[in-house]
Design brief:
The complex is a heterodimer of chains A (about 290) and B (about 150). Chain A has helices spanning about 15-25, 35-40, 80-85, 85-90, 90-100, 105-110, 110-120, 125-130, 150, 230-235, 240-255, 265-290, and strands spanning about 5-10, 30, 50-55, 65, 70-75, 135-140, 145-150, 155, 160, 165-175, 180-185, 195-205, 210-220. Chain A has about 290 residues and is of the alpha+beta class. Chain A has three domains: about 5-55, Uridine Diphospho-n-acetylenolpyruvylglucosamine Reductase, domain 2 (2-Layer Sandwich), CATH 3.30.43.10; about 65-175, Uridine Diphospho-n-acetylenolpyruvylglucosamine Reductase, domain 3 (2-Layer Sandwich), CATH 3.30.465.10; about 180-290, Enolase-like, domain 1 (2-Layer Sandwich), CATH 3.30.390. In chain A, helix 10 (about 230-235) runs antiparallel to helix 11 (about 240-255) and helix 11 packs antiparallel against helix 12 (about 265-290). Chain B has about 150 residues and is of the alpha+beta class. Chain B folds into two domains: about 1-75, Ubiquitin-like (UB roll), CATH 3.10.20.30; about 85-150, DNA polymerase, domain 1. Chain B has helices spanning about 25-30, 85-95, 105-115, 120-130, 140-150; strands at about 1-10, 10-15, 50, 55-60, 70-75. Chain B has a five-stranded mixed β-sheet with strand order 2-1-5-3-4, sandwiched between helices. The chains are: A alpha+beta (about 290), B alpha+beta (about 150). Chains A and B meet through helix 2 and helix 6 of A and strand 4 and helix 3 of B.
Chain lengths: ~290, ~150
């Protein structure tokens, strides 16, 4: 269970990390919390010649509210996101998702930037980032850019990050006042990746009509998705049992799940429908309580 | 080879290791602290859990070189002056140990949970040890032991 040999590098600043990544290119991997990369290296699925440890770079670990958004430094750990009073108060489904990742030991080390950049098809941050229209702030030698979550995930374990680019910060715009969010995950055993998961942020008026809806799901394909068709179905309508069932059918029909040890495609389609319906029902209950 | 120097159980310890050496192997083979157990080595069983800079982590999921300059506490660091730690006392009293293989990891996860000084609920105890597998006890006595220890944790 030893990885292939590598050279360990510990840059002190983002600038230094960018330079190292530029110099070593595809031979290098960035190490943040290492809770997925280290196991992959042990299995020799990943064999970087250089490991650039960005975990100690000062100024990459923070949670703060800025210009109507919650900004999170890339090496902020899952446990910090799970326990952040700011996130729990204003973006509870993000705290929920962080609390569902792996186990306590993994959450103590793993980071949000690492989790997003790994882009596991059923990673817990993907659906939340898509639902809330998060933006990934990245840096490379030519400058800084922001990638919208909808462009970030390009395939299983693949993102729009260029080989010389480092994810620095994730920007989550605050959801509308009065809305409520729920992350619902179906897993086989505690600590596993999801079979399917749904993130729903919802607001309704006094008449029960949906005034805003944002959804992100995983389990329906090789990467997390923002099901615009389902959002369109629900927006402007009274969300009752019948409409919730219809949303479940719609997501199920559009899904093309990957068959694996967590289930057949047919099972995962039903699982995806179930998590979406549960997240819708629960967020509707919460937002109605807010009225 | 890199020289790695860190604080283990309050003492400065150092040794040579390759970059790819896992912390669990460095602790056991280089520093000869064999209390930390090697279980699955793929991050699933939690037997190798240690405290790293104040939080439980699985030492098979960390390269030793990452901990250079840091603070690690292993199960050997719990007992003081030949007196068992209240957690160890509680595990003994509540029969929370059968074969004992998972015990060092269970103790360190529990130690991490109780370190914040709060009294955890049963649900919080179960969540805290969900990354630690035990194939003997059925967990009931382990949860009871952690609950007992929470009362007199220092």
């Amino acid at each position: 269970m030893y990885p292939a040999a590598f050279e360990y590098l510990r840059p002190r600043s983002i600038r230094e990390a960018v330079e190292l990544l530029l110099r070593h290119g595809e031979d290098a991997k960035l190490l943040a919390g290492g809770q997925s990369l280290v196991p992959m290296m042990k299995l020799r699925v990943a064999r970087p010649k250089y490991l650039i440890d960005i975990h100690r770079i000062a100024g990459l670990n923070y949670v703060r509210e800025e210009h109507g958004a919650i900004c999170i430094g890339a090496t902020t750990r899952h446990v910090q996101i799970e326990q952040s009073p700011l996130i729990r108060d204003k973006m509870s489904m993000l705290a929920q998702a962080a609390g569902e990742i792996g186990d306590a030991q993994v959450r103590n080390r793993g980071t949000i930037g690492g989790g997003l950049a790994e882009a596991d098809p059923v990673g817990d941050y993907g659906p939340v980032a898509l639902a809330l229209d998060a933006r990934m702030k990245c840096v490379r030698p030519s400058g800084v850019r922001e990638i919208p979550a909808s462009d970030f995930f390009t395939f299983a374990y693949t993102t729009a990050l260029e080989p010389d680019e480092i994810l620095m910060e994730i920007i989550f715009p605050l959801p509308p006042r009065g809305s409520a969010g729920v992350y619902h995950k179906l897993e086989k055993v505690a600590g596993d990746f999801a079979i399917a998961a749904a993130a729903v942020q919802l607001a309704v008026g006094r008449d029960g009509v949906c005034t805003s809806i944002a959804i992100g799901v995983s389990g329906g394909g090789p990467m997390p998705q923002k099901p615009a068709a389902v959002e369109n179905l629900l927006r402007g309508k009274k969300i009752d049992r019948e409409l919730t069932e219809e949303a479940g059918r719609l997501i199920q029909d559009d899904a093309e799940p990957i068959e694996d040890l967590r289930g057949s495609a047919a099972y995962k389609r039903k699982a995806l429908s179930a998590v979406l319906r549960r997240a819708l029902t629960e967020s509707l209950r919460l937002t109605t309580n807010n009225l | 080879m890199a020289n790695i120097s860190l604080t283990v159980n309050g003492e400065t310890r150092s040794g040579e290791a390759e970059s790819r050496t896992l912390l669990v192997h460095f602790l056991r083979d280089t520093l000869r602290l064999t209390g930390t157990h090697v279980g699955c080595v793929v991050g699933r069983c939690g037997a190798c859990t240690v405290m790293w800079n104040g939080a439980p982590v699985k030492s098979c999921m960390v390269f030793a070189v990452q901990t250079d300059g840091d603070e690690v506490v292993t199960v050997e660091g719990l007992a003081r002056d030949k007196r068992l730690h209240p957690l160890q006392e509680a595990f003994w009293k509540k029969d929370a140990v059968e074969c004992g293989y998972c015990t060092p990891g269970m103790l360190m996860s529990a130690y991490g949970l109780l370190s914040n000084g709060k009294t955890p609920t049963e649900a919080e105890i179960k969540k805290a040890i969900s990354g630690n597998l035990c194939r003997c006890t059925g967990y009931g006595n382990i949860v009871a032991a952690i609950r007992e220890a929470a009362g007199n944790f220092k």
